[in-house]
Amino acid sequence: MRMAAMHTATRTDTGTMFEYEFMVNAFIASGIVAVLAGVVGYFLVLRGQTFAGHALSHVGFTGATGAVLLGLSPIWGMVGFTLAAGIAMGALGEKLAGRDVAIGVILSLALGAGLLFLHFYTSYATQVTALLFGNVLGVSHATLMVLAGIGAVSLIALAAIMRPLVFASLQPELAEAKGVSLRLVSVLFLAICALAVAACTQIVGVLLVFTLLVGPAAAAQNLSTRLASGVWLAALFALAEAWFGVTLAYYTDWPTSFWITALSALVYAASLMGRYRATA
User: What are the C-alpha distances in Å from 209 to residues 72, 164, 182, 220, 251?
Assistant: First the structure.
């Protein structure tokens, strides 16, 4: 019923978008998630850990389907599994090669478990689609509060570890020599990344997490070599893509995830052209 009402509103009255509670929730939720994804994603790209974001999204899917099978909210299963996996990835090794192996093992295990849960989850096709591709127009007030909490905790935690994180990301050998625990930094950052992934899946789904987590950050790094301006650009790009995506979805009745993904690709392509012109 709710989805039918949303589609009817989209087709019959496009002049009063913010009169609908689900649209207000969609803009607030996508804004929170976009800013979080842009900021966290910037450091994910900077540290060369984009594959970790991909792996965590699959782990989150396993957690979400498992939670539903137990009669729990999928977002809590998503948060619990991604957080545990992020901590495990960081703890299993901070060296690049070792980290890749650790991520690969966890991803394979998660996909296997997800396949098992999906076998028992076939009667909930609509919810499976929402998990895979997101459903920002269906965000409830309760979910909105959870996303706000995740965003606040993640950004505060990121600010708390900012200095050692930057040091460990740019000069890991020197940072370790100065007493910075690379393993601890990795654990804390990947835990934050896990929360960001769990939030992103509510907007774009498991399969399109890269759209908000990596696309805006990569575009920002193409246009700025300064850390502060790069972080701001990444957050701004992600926010613009999310809000324009929701708006275009409202006016066209096309999937929100498609529009956000398309806009992310356009912004990234434009950033490549901008970098090429700047260096030509």
Answer: 23, 26, 26, 17, 24
CATH of the domain at 119: 1.10.3470.10
- Number of domains into which the chain is organized: 1
How many whole angstroms separate alpha carbon 134 and alpha carbon 206?
Answer: 7
Q: Which domain does 172 fall in, by range? A: 2-9+19-275
Please write the tens of the pLDDT for every residue from 10-51.
444 545 788 888 999 999 999 999 999 999 999 999 988 887
Q: Pinpoint the alpha helices (H) of 120-140.
A: 125-133
What residues have CB less than 8 Å from 196, skipping those under 6 apart?
36, 37, 40, 41, 150, 154, 213
Is 280 domain-assigned?
Answer: no
| CB-CB contact of 221 with 45 (8 Å) | yes
Q: What is the pLDDT of residues 214-254, one digit of tens each?
A: 999 999 999 988 999 999 999 999 999 999 999 999 988 89
Residue 34 to residue 40: CA distance in whole angstroms = 10
Measured between alpha carbons, how far is 77 from 83 in angstroms, rounded to an integer? 10
The answer to whether residues 185 and 161 touch, using CB atoms and an 8 Å cutoff, is yes
14 domain-assigned = no
Q: Crossing angle for the helix pair 21-46 and 215-223, nearest 10 degrees?
A: 60
For CA atoms 30, 213, 188, 57, the dihedral sign is positive
